[in-house]
Structure to design on (69 residues):
């Protein structure tokens, strides 16, 4: 089985969550499941950009509070 990309992992994480989650929560969970992913501001902003791209293409939605679901 091929390794899942970070984007696919983020999408599954947000879709499987019962409540909308912030990009900080998503980044923390992704970094916990991928120890090789360093905890840097650049990576956190990259994760936010991936989530924003999913919103743009309609794969997920963003709440008024700025959380993703």
């Amino acid at each position: 089985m091929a390794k899942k990309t970070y984007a696919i992992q983020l999408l599954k994480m947000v879709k499987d969550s019962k409540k909308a989650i912030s990009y900080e929560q998503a980044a923390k969970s992704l970094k916990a499941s991928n120890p090789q992913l360093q905890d840097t501001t650049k990576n956190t902003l990259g994760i936010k950009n991936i989530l924003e791209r999913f919103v743009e293409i309609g794969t997920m939605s963003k709440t008024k509070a700025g959380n993703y679901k």
Observations:
- The longest helix spans residues 41-57.
- Helices lie at 6-16, 23-33, 41-57.
- The chain has a mean pLDDT of 91.
- The chain is about 55% helix and 0% strand.
